[in-house]
Design brief:
Elements: H1 2-22, H2 24-31, H3 35-78
Length: about 80
Amino acid sequence: MTLLALALGSFCIGTSEFASMGIIQLFAAQLRISIPDATNACRRLVKDDERYATTLAAFHVIALVGYMFKHATQMIQCA
């Protein structure tokens, strides 16, 4: 099962990379910009997605710490 998940994840990542580079000419034509400008726009979008994951991870840690403090205070009050 683990090997299947790894294979599926690798396939999806590889397919998304090649698919986006295969249609970059269509993006450039629709937006009436050059192909290098369209490529740079796509790279900026990818970098934004990477920052979203980091930001969400930070919020996850904050929420987890808050949850732990809530339960820790309840345990201290019961003891």
